[in-house]
Design brief:
The protein is globular and about 80 Å long. It is 24% helix and 23% strand. It folds into two domains: 215 residues, no CATH class; 205 residues, Macroglobulin (MG2) domain (Immunoglobulin-like), CATH 2.60.40. About 4% of the residues have low confidence. It starts with a helix and ends with a strand. The strands form seven sheets. Strands 11, 13, 14, 17, 19 and 20 form a six-stranded mixed beta sheet that branches. Strands 1-3-2 form a three-stranded antiparallel beta sheet. By secondary structure, the chain is an alpha+beta fold. Bound molecules: heme C (5 copies). The site of one heme C (HEC) has 27 residues, from helix 8, helix 9, helix 11 and helix 12.
């Protein structure tokens, strides 16, 4: 009897050690068959499936810029430069986790239609049980795919699969696994979670989910329970105008609303980030552009741009648009373009626009959009933090012969996912780099 008990204990402990459960993410530890296709979930969770499909989660491997950046830049460099060799699988650990876990590295390009195309699928987020890191980053998730789906409810009555309550699913640390990234050079090249944790929303416990998922009464499947707070899988970010618009407040003031010709007026712009739970831009801040254009329009509709007043901080030149500044030489080097001098650092921005950005520098000291090839990015950070306000001034010297009795000052805050120069150079579809208006404001002046 005793021996049987001992034997059972032994067998159980051996099984516990050998079971694939709570595995740290390592490439090749599973097969594609260990993961259900999202389509299977759509049979019962149709609404959630359609939301997920619209979000970037389902497109994280297939959409054009990801396709181009991995296959034209990161992968070729990983095959040439030992220091960045690991990004061959690293990019895939976050962008096509099923392929990564199945050891399909490098995956076929999206056009081949493999299961890499599923992106961040249902079974990834609902298979993740935790992280190997106390503060997760670089696809440090532990995952246990299979019959059991991990979720936030203790009273789910599923069909077809089982569920297990996991506090991790509803935690921001789930997101941190993929939203914080360290480059092979040790630079934090994505730190949305860390920004959030250090800011007001982290300390008040407002989670990523609270702003990026919607909660409404209903059912998660026709067979499910009626609940007050079904989690909708929107995951909208700056790829969706409806999320981006108005995310920063903008106010304009003049030190004197009545100005004499030949004198000057100082216009003040206030930009308040009251809605974004981390910096704006965040995430891929190596390439995101947020900038303010200010102009004066006379009575006849002619517009003159007003450049931002310099503040004089170190590295400020990277935050003021300059059509003569060139950057991104690493792209040409990787693509082996002889004599490549780089392209316009600020794309087609009008000179003198203030750019709220955090420039990244490669090991040769050049500004780069290759986040995996980034050595340094901490010296200059002029993005707008959560609940932070940036004040900018614009001095306008009213010409002696200004033609009208009134002048309208207009300010527009724009965002683009990638500098237009990079978008054009890499032949991306124009929506991938066009300027989207986040907010605008105007002010009327009387000219005497
Ligand atoms: C045959 C129908 C059916 C299919 C197919 C199905 N589910 Fe479910 N699922 C349910 C039902 C029923 C519930 C319980 C709903 C409730 O209690 O409100 C549920 C609940 C869940 C939950 C919630 C668990 C929690 O703790 O909140 C998750 C997560 C989940 N399913 C994931 C999936 C995934 C991923 C797939 C595809 C691999 C899938 N489901 C396929 C019927 C299904
Ligand atoms: C990026 C991660 C992520 C992906 C991808 C994802 N989910 Fe979820 N899902 C969550 C989180 C987080 C919650 C719980 C939200 C909370 O705790 O506030 C959740 C909740 C659910 C629930 C419970 C809903 C409720 O409120 O009762 C179901 C069912 C579900 N997911 C199914 C799916 C299906 C099906 C897919 C794929 C089509 C999917 N999920 C993809 C993160 C994800
Ligand atoms: C397995 C990795 C993974 C996990 C876990 C994950 N994400 Fe993501 N997420 C990604 C990737 C990859 C992208 C980039 C998609 C792209 O642009 O190609 C992304 C993009 C996003 C975006 C930007 C969408 C846009 O419109 O630009 C938001 C918002 C987001 N995720 C929120 C979340 C939240 C909230 C969670 C946690 C509940 C989460 N993610 C968990 C991998 C992940
Ligand atoms: C208080 C609400 C709020 C919270 C909390 C929040 N976000 Fe956001 N997030 C936003 C808004 C609004 C945007 C759209 C504006 C923008 O792009 O910054 C956004 C944008 C993003 C983007 C795109 C960043 C870019 O510039 O490309 C990502 C990725 C993202 N969020 C992930 C997360 C993750 C992960 C967390 C938790 C660690 C989180 N968010 C917490 C409101 C929030
Ligand atoms: C730790 C997880 C992680 C790793 C590793 C990672 N990414 Fe990402 N990637 C993300 C997330 C999350 C986003 C979305 C951030 C945002 O919206 O600002 C993203 C955004 C992007 C974008 C921008 C997409 C767009 O539409 O603007 C590209 C391109 C990209 N990644 C390519 C790569 C390549 C190539 C690699 C490998 C060198 C890589 N990523 C490594 C998580 C990761």
């Amino acid at each position: 009897m005793k021996r049987t008990v001992l034997f059972t204990v032994l067998i159980v402990s051996v099984c516990l050690i050998l079971l694939p459960s709570r595995h740290a993410a390592e490439t090749g530890t599973f097969t594609y068959d260990d993961f259900s296709e999202p389509k299977q979930c759509s049979i019962c969770h149709g609404e959630i499936y359609r939301e997920w499909q619209q979000s970037l989660m389902s497109q994280s491997f297939t959409h054009p810029w990801d396709d181009v950046e991995y296959f034209k830049l990161a992968l070729p460099q990983a095959l040439k430069l030992e220091k960045v060799a690991d990004v061959k699988s690293g990019c895939i650990g976050c962008h096509a986790p099923v392929a990564f876990l199945a050891g399909d590295i490098p995956p076929q390009p999206p056009a081949a239609g493999t299961r890499a195309n599923e992106g961040v699928s249902c079974d990834i987020c609902h298979g993740i049980t935790g992280s190997t890191e106390e503060v997760p980053y670089n696809f440090s998730y532990r995952i246990n795919p299979g019959k059991v789906k991990y979720g936030s409810r203790k009273d789910a009555e599923p069909q077809f699969h089982e569920t297990e309550y996991s506090a991790f699913t509803g935690s921001p640390e789930l997101c941190a696994n993929c939203h914080d990234e360290q480059s092979p050079y040790g630079a934090w090249v994505k730190e949305t979670y860390r920004e959030w944790a250090a800011g007001p929303y982290g300390s008040q416990g407002v989670r990523c989910q609270d702003c990026h998922m919607h909660y409404a009464p209903g059912k998660s499947t026709p067979m499910g329970k009626e609940r007050d707070d079904i989690a909708h899988h929107v995951f909208h970010g700056p790829h969706f105008d409806q999320k981006l618009k108005g995310s920063v407040d903008l106010a304009l003031y003049a030190d004197n609303p009545e100005v004499k010709r030949g004198s000057r007026v100082v216009i003040r712009a206030e930009l308040y980030n009251g809605k974004v739970g981390h910096y704006i831009p965040s995430g891929s801040s190596e390439e995101r552009m947020l900038w303010l254009e200010v102009q004066v329009v006379d009575g006849k509709g002619n517009a003159i741009r007003i450049p931002v007043d310099k503040k004089g901080f170190a590295g400020e030149e990277f935050t003021i648009a300059d059509s003569q500044a060139f950057a991104y030489q690493a792209m040409g080097e990787i693509m082996e373009i002889p004599g490549y001098k780089g392209i316009a650092r600020d794309g087609n921005l009008p000179d003198g626009s203030r750019i709220f950005r955090r420039p990244y520098f490669d090991p040769k000291g050049r500004m780069t959009i290759c986040q995996w090839y980034t050595e340094k990015n901490t010296d200059i950070d002029y993005r707008i933090g959560p609940r932070e306000t940036k004040l900018e001034t614009y001095t306008w010297n009213v010409p002696d012969k200004f033609p009208s009795q009134t002048a309208k000052i207009t300010a527009t805050l724009y965002y683009s996912l990638v500098p237009s120069s990079v978008g054009e150079f890499m032949k991306l579809p124009s929506y991938a780099y066009e300027a989207k208006a986040v907010n605008s404001a105007s002010l009327d002046l009387t000219i005497k």
